Amino acid sequence: MLQNRFGKLAATALAGSMLMGAAACGGSEESTSAQPSGAASSAPAASGAKVGLAYDIGGRGDQSFNDSAAAGLDKAKTELGLAETKELEAGNGETEAAKEERLRLLASGGYNPIIAVGFAYSGPVKKVAAEFPDIKFAIVDDAAATGPNVSNLLFAEHEGSFLVGAAAALKSKKNHVGFVGGVRTPLINKFEAGFAAGAKAVKSDIKIETAYLSEPPEFSGFNDPAKGKTAAQGMFDAGADVVYHAAGGSGSGVFEAAKAAKGLAIGVDSDQAKTAAADLQGVIMTSMLKKVDVAVYDFLKSFAGNSVKSGSTVYDLKSGGVDYSTTGGQVDDIKTKLDEYKQKIISGEVTVPDKTS
């Protein structure tokens, strides 16, 4: 799934030139999602549809969040007979106006539906969807961008993070773990809150290190492996032996730090023991699976079936929207315990906090 880096740069440059021109002219496992709100649309069938996808920072090839969205699009290409797809990327430090023009470029180019990957598109989706009421939009990780033609694809990240937090505590030999967040936002705080709750459920006195790589409106923390490595290295040096990241493309730096420290890391969004560089996969004991691929595919399938609905669909642990990975066998010895926690969350016996206190 990873793109050739030269091709990626060329594609980004082309997209940038197209955006300037537009301005001048003036996301084998099956998931059952929660019931979305809103009325069914009368969109045309997706067979032969032109689908536009606007990535978050890092784009296709980040081995995490964006790649999961790309996997859903790729599956739809194969199974739904899409006529054409167009994928555009966000740049570090870009303005909301740039995101708006990216969405307008797709909409004015006849792409329908259009999927925006990440909460940073909240304002732009709300604005551009209102300008193109006949086009269906979906946005991943945001409930604020509302409209009759907007579908919000949401996740219970805190529930999946609880499970990997429990795994970290069960595997830690030093009773000391860490969390690296890409950007300090309410969304990433959900990951931290769930992770801490899971770790403390296993060991109430466990020490948890926390670091965020950037603060809003600076979102570079999702695409800065060097900064991720420095943050994780500090945690390992302080005594942690397992570090979980929710930092997008910066996670590769966390894995490098884990390898250097002979520690363990926990991936996010995708099964990163499969997607990370081969020499780093062995340090990834598990990943918190956030099935953006399932959400993206489900949305495109509903478009194909003329059943797109506006409003929120939440992919939680019960629906299979979040989970933990077992690639590499490093959590096989604690899987029974993790699955016990999983069932307690699903049954409601355990309620996972979605924010830190």
From TrEMBL:
It comes from the Bacteria. Coiled coil: none annotated. Residues 56-355 form the ABC transporter substrate-binding protein PnrA-like domain. InterPro entries: BMP_lipoprotein (IPR050957), PnrA-like (IPR003760). It is found in: Cell membrane. It holds the Pfam family Bmp. This is BMP family ABC transporter substrate-binding protein. Keywords: Cell membrane, Lipoprotein, Membrane, Signal. Residues 1-24 form the signal peptide. Its main location: membrane.
